[in-house]
Batch of 2 targets.
Target 1
Amino acid sequence: MAQIGYYVVLESSCTIWFGVMGTRSSLLANRNLIMSYVMNNSIINTDIRFSIVENNSFLGAGSIITDLILRNADQSDTKLNSMMVKVLVGKGIVNSGYYILGLAFESL
């Protein structure tokens, strides 16, 4: 079951399984949306599962969407014992400023 908003573009060979596509959003060819919510005015060119994508988003080919809850790093929170998401910047890997707190959704 899926919920599709108004003026949504679904290109060929797309799959939406227990998902929501918001108004004026697009799911490009050969992409899968599984148990996820894509809000309004978004363009998706990657597979998404167990995730929420905000309004006015663009996810290009090769984007990787995780099913994790992220928390913005706070310099005063020295006791938070959690891994920080790392990102590639140029030729180096740096901390993103977001801690991984745990899974956003449990497996069914």
Target 2
Amino acid sequence: MEQVAELLAENGHEQFDGLVPVLSEALGQSGLKRLESSCRQRGGRNGDTHLLQIALARGDVEGYLAQFDAEDLRWRDIAAGVAQQLLRCERAEQALQILDAATEEVADLEESAWHDSRIAVLEALNRRAEAQEVRWQWFSHSLSIPHLRDYLQRLDDFADVEAEERALQLAGQHPESLRGLQFLVAWPALSRAARHVLAHAREWDGEAYTIHCAAAERLSAQHPLAATLLLRPLVVFALEMGRDKRYRYAAEQLRSCDQLAARIDDWQGHPDHATYVESLHDRFGGTWQFWERLE
């Protein structure tokens, strides 16, 4: 027992986070109670992962809740975790109260957890229309494909077609063009994604390497101009940053642009490939490491 408490006290890198759940059955109620006492004697404080785990393992929901004060529960990521535990204990009404009282927004990943908890709680309370509203609300902000799919699956026949169209329009008008592109490519709605690329041609930033590469690859077969407009910023970004390690990839991307150019009949006001390469020479002609790789 003391050895376990000692390990938990030294859990600086969260390496022992799974210890209490593994040992809870062997320890039993009395062992868990003694472990909690030992942990607190070693400086354990309310909200520590292992103390929360001990309370849950003992079935002590009130002891679990008592480890959070009102300030803690203002944060949506904390409220989401607490609500999930209350839901497991069939205390959905209380879970909803905690979620609704959480006013401090957090990063998107934690915000998603709050919305997921609220959806689960509303479903448990048979408030399904409200759960649908939350799904759509979170999709509208995040363009989360799983939330949209869940939303559409719960609609009547034909209503899902109309809602999908509304979702695609929303993605195309999203204030974060890059997020809109990522959604349209992944859904997939490639023709819309291509139009989205052209509509926001001045906004693409080569720093978003992974998204640009994935989108350009998907669009290259049927939409060579859109793919080209996504690859060009990657080349410029590598040259502007002077990143020698990126020059090999930038050279490959410029060669891809050359291959795509053979299938582009209408450049729609954008410089053709020869003109674009000439402009690169004018700006970065002294970056001989890149041009050597290209040759």
